[in-house]
Design brief:
The chain is of the alpha/beta class. It has 3 domains: about 60 residues; about 250 residues, Type I PLP-dependent aspartate aminotransferase-like (Major domain) (Aspartate Aminotransferase, domain 2, 3-Layer(aba) Sandwich), CATH 3.40.640; about 130 residues, Alpha-Beta Complex (Aspartate Aminotransferase, domain 1), CATH 3.90.1150. It is built from 16 helices and 11 strands.
């Protein structure tokens, strides 16, 4: 460690960087030989990492050794080809290297003048992402940390547009009636958090029932908005989802958009998961028309192999985001012209990392055709898994989706045909059985899944989208599921 007041020397930085990259190369070369996760005792984990604040610094070799031995084995490996949980947030190698460069340059992309090329490149990347999602580029855009914040920012702009008075100056106590937001009973919890944060309250989040395919029912939406207007409420926005979290359903944007237009209500489209699958040749013509929304979020960190964090928010109501968020104290004044603008005006965030660079690198590395082929590959793997599961008498596909999220439920014939079980007892037994399968499979370290509970019961979610996942990985998962399921069936229903 250097004894002066500076940083590592440049040569030390290069040497340490080579050592880290070599370690990462070895890690990914052997990734299928390593578990997706390792069981660990929480108390032991905390104890192994807890230590007094170091008085003196340590050498890089000690940092890397402790990271390799104490931290990485106890992480859930989201970049593992057998990670099938939640939604994929897979980081490709060009994105990883771009993040390294971004961290080294450490620019703040808040104002055009604080980093002109970062702002100019963000505008380019936003245009490209809109094209990849099949949307026109005539919208105000901004890169944010994730879809949850994008939903919050969009609803903030919608609230201010609907309130009928200056919320910025007077606050919600300044005269607003009851403001309401509408979304499906399948929408992401970030919508709930947004209405809490914006002071609207969960009582004013109207959950619209979904149909038998878990899509928002337009007739129920129309009825809810009409009822609320008659009762003196002010509809703020409808949040429609393309790729719901539990089952990857897509709300029917066409009819929902027509309803919003008739009632003068802002339509926000949360396409964080499924927004780019229109690139897949197998799904040509399947994806909803995302351009109908007043605002839209799509998420390159979920399906375009871009490392966390990074989502794209678009608003077709020009200057609506800036009307909500622009606040320029003297120390942040600038002199923009017709070609420049300040991205800090389009969100609540002032310090902004250079998110555009990793997206630029990934998109240029693979190109539109390469990204489309990779997304199509994931869709094909999911179709193969559905075909295998559908042919097995003990497994069910409770709900279908065109996207590469497969919901499975183990419903063995021995349980389904048992005359001694009531319907309630049978469902409870099946729910417990599926939960046990998930827990055992994840504990094995050989794969990782997540779950949801839908109307049909407890389901196992297989989310396919890692850039390294291949047919053999999916087949191994299926074999593991079958073996694990049969083991637990023998235990609970001999």
């Amino acid at each position: 460690m250097s004894t002066d007041f500076g940083d590592w020397t440049e040569s030390a930085f290069e040497d340490n960087g080579r050592e880290l990259l070599a370690f990462l190369g070895d890690h990914f070369a052997a990734i299928r030989e390593n578990p997706v996760s390792e069981a660990c005792d929480t108390a032991e984990l905390v104890e192994s990492l807890d230590s007094p604040l170091p008085e003196a610094g340590v050498e890089f070799s000690a940092l890397l050794r402790d990271t390799r031995e104490k931290v990485i084995p106890r992480l859930l490996q989201w970049n593992h080809p057998s990670f099938f949980g939640y939604f994929p947030t897979c980081a490709s190698f060009p994105g990883v290297l771009a993040e390294t460069l971004t961290a080294a340059l450490n620019v703040n992309a808040m104002l055009w003048k604080t980093s002109p090329a970062a702002s100019a490149l963000e505008a380019v990347v936003l245009r490209w992402i809109a094209q990849l999602a099949g949307c026109p580029g005539e919208a105000d855009g901004v890169l944010v940390t994730g879809a949850s914040l994008a939903n919050l920012y969009a609803l903030a702009a919608a609230r201010d547009a609907a309130a009928g008075f200056d919320v910025r100056e007077r606050g919600l106590a300044g005269g607003a009636g009851r403001l309401r937001v509408y979304t499906s009973d399948q929408a992401h919890s970030s919508v709930d958090k947004a209405v809490i944060t914006l002071g609207l309250g969960l009582d004013n989040l109207v959950r619209i029932p979904s149909d038998d395919q878990y899509r928002m029912r337009p007739d129920a939406l129309e009825a809810a908005i009409t009822h609320d207007r008659d009762a003196g409420f002010t509809p703020v926005a409808v949040v429609a989802t393309v790729g719901t979290t539990s089952v990857a359903a897509a709300d029917p944007l066409g009819p929902i958009s027509d309803i919003c237009t008739r009632h003068g209500v802002w339509l926000h489209v949360d396409a964080a998961y499924a927004g780019f699958y229109g690139l897949s040749p197998r799904l040509s013509g399947v994806l909803e028309d995302l351009s109908v929304g007043d605002s839209l979020v799509v998420n390159p960190q979920k399906t375009l192999f871009v490392p966390l964090e990074g989502a794209a928010l678009y608003c077709r109501r020009r200057d609506a985001l800036a009307n909500t968020f622009r606040l320029v104290p003297e120390y942040l004044t600038s002199d923009p012209d017709d070609l420049t603008f300040d991205f800090m005006d389009r969100s609540a965030q002032l310090g902004r990392s250079f998110k555009a660079l990793k997206m630029w690198w990934v998109i240029r590395t693979f190109g539109r055709a390469g990204l489309a082929a990779r997304l199509d590959h994931a869709v094909a793997l999911a179709e193969d898994l559905r075909t295998i599961a559908a042919s097995h008498p003990d497994w069910e596909l409770p709900v279908s989706s065109p996207y590469p999220l497969v919901c499975l439920r183990y419903q063995p014939r021995a349980v389904m045909s048992d005359p001694g079980l009531t319907d309630e007892a049978r469902r409870s037994l099946l729910d417990t059985l599926n939960a046990s399968i998930l827990a055992d499979l994840n504990a094995s370290g050989r794969a990782f899944l997540s779950h949801s509970v839908i109307r049909e019961g407890y389901v196992l979610r297989v989310s396919i989208g890692n850039i390294r996942t291949g047919a053999d990985d999916v087949r191994r998962l299926w074999d593991l599921l079958c073996v694990t399921a049969e083991k637990h069936l023998a235990e609970v229903h001999p």
